[in-house]
Design goal:
411 residues, alpha/beta, Rossmann fold, 2 domains, eight-stranded mixed β-sheet, five-stranded parallel β-sheet, binds cytidine-5'-triphosphate
């Protein structure tokens, strides 16, 4: 009975080698281990020496049911499973929290302890969840290492923004255990879930409309809600493509990302993908207008006032709807007033199946980590309470899957 249930779990029979490095977020790795086990994974733990300063190996040994290893040359452990054997054992090597030091070692290929040796000796996918002080994360050396790793196909999960253990605020916090587990599922799980086999296309982020070679019109969208939604839909089994305006975010694990700049480019890529899509979601804050003429040379200041002629951009959702009346479409509406009225109007005007509306301001929506949504459809609505964007995204993804199934019973 229990084995029948466990094989249904998204990480059933999957082996994960969890590397824990020294940082205050190490305590969250215990929670992460449990979340991975809840999803069906078998987990073994390797700790760096510094990690021992933050959490004891006994915690991970008790939770994983296996001895925890730290030393490269430990005859007793090497006799049981040598480090090369250990490097072959997992389906994924996950380092969480990943310190600046371990991230640098991974980028450079250094192997001076057990964990860094395993990262070099494995041919399995590597996923890192960085956690460090914001200045260490922002340092050009760390950023260069992160870019090297991303280019090599290593998945970086986070880091997130917010209050840090050192009392500072900024990017560097380890992603929450649930978000890391979802990234692991997205990377490893055979697509199961309510959206398995479904193609979902999302737009996300702002668009950027040039005025001249050095200036452009854009907006405050960070892309965070759209990226979080892409990850949540992937976790429900969907094959997700993200058409993204310029944002400072890594692509979620298992999601295909296409970069664009302008509304017209976004429409062109959306138009290519829409014919084969099952669900199309517009989370992008598309610039409604662009410069009527883009100056070839930098515009010089002369008069005290300057007028800029703008022309309407095409509406991406409306254009796609005209070509695919049957496509399940979800829109977003960011509003500063009369939220329900404007959202319902857009639902009808753009012939959408669902619209997710958010009130802008009060620490919500644009360029923030929290959001709250009110979702409308013909004949109903639901409030998604204020919370981190990843959590809001999971609820919204579930709602989209539910309404999609209702709208396409035969699919
Ligand atoms: N949208 C789009 N193409 C545009 C503008 C908006 O596809 N050129 C999509 C957005 O991605 C979002 C929805 O339409 O899903 C609503 O965007 P919003 O800017 O709020 O709506 P508008 O129709 O532009 O209305 P207004 O700006 O007047 O509020």
């Amino acid at each position: 009975m229990s084995s029948a249930i466990s094989t249904d779990l998204p990480l059933a029979r999957r082996r994960i080698l969890l590397g824990v490095t020294g940082g205050i977020a190490a305590y969250k790795a215990a929670e992460l281990l449990r979340r991975l086990q809840d999803a069906g994974a078998e987990v073994r733990v390797v700790m760096t020496r510094h990690a021992h300063e933050f959490i004891t190996p006994m915690t991970f040994q008790a939770l994983s049911g296996h001895p925890v290893r730290s030393a490269l040359f430990d005859p007793a452990h090497e006799a049981a499973m040598g480090h090369i054997e250990l490097a072959r054992w997992p389906d994924l090597v996950l380092v969480a929290p990943c310190s600046a030091n371990t991230l640098a070692k991974a980028a450079l290929g250094l192997a001076d302890d057990l964990l860094s040796t395993l990262m070099l000796a494995t041919d399995k996918p590597l996923m890192l969840a960085p956690a460090m002080n914001r200045l260490m994360w922002a340092h050009p050396a760390t950023q260069a290492h992160a870019a090297t790793l991303a280019a090599r196909g290593v998945t970086l999960v986070g880091p997130g923004d917010g209050a840090q253990a050192c009392g500072e605020i900024g990017a560097g916090r380890m992603s929450e255990p649930e978000a890391i587990r979802d990234a692991v599922i997205a990377q490893l799980a055979a697509p199961t879930g309510p959206l398995a086999g479904k193609k979902v296309v999302l737009t996300a982020g702002p668009t950027r409309e040039a005025i001249d070679p050095v200036r452009f019109i854009t907006n405050r969208s960070s892309g965070k809600q759209g990226y979080a939604l892409a990850a949540a839909l992937r976790a429900l089994g969907a094959e997700v493509t993200l058409i993204s305006g310029p944002v400072n975010l890594p692509a979620p694990a298992g999601v295909t990302r296409i970069d664009v700049e302008t509304a017209e480019q976004m429409l062109a890529r959306a138009g290519e993908l829409a014919p084969s899509a099952d669900i199309f979601i517009g989370t992008a804050a598309v610039a409604d207008y662009r410069a009527a003429e883009v100056a070839v040379q930098k515009v010089k200041k002369s008069a005290d006032t300057l007028s800029l002629a703008l022309i309407r951009n095409p509406d991406i959702l409306a254009t796609l709807r005209a070509g695919r009346p049957d496509l399940f479409m979800v829109g977003f509406a960011a509003e500063t007033e009369r939220l329900a009225e404007h959202a319902r109007d857009k639902l009808v005007r753009k012939h959408l199946n669902l619209i997710a509306a958010n009130q802008v301001g009060d620490g919500l929506a644009f360029d923030t980590d929290d959001n709250a949504l009110q979702v409308f459809w013909s004949g109903g609505e639901q409030v998604i309470a204020r919370g981190p964007k990843a959590e809001v995204a999971r609820t919204l993804a579930g709602l989209i899957a539910h309404h999609y199934a209702k709208a396409t019973p035969a699919a």
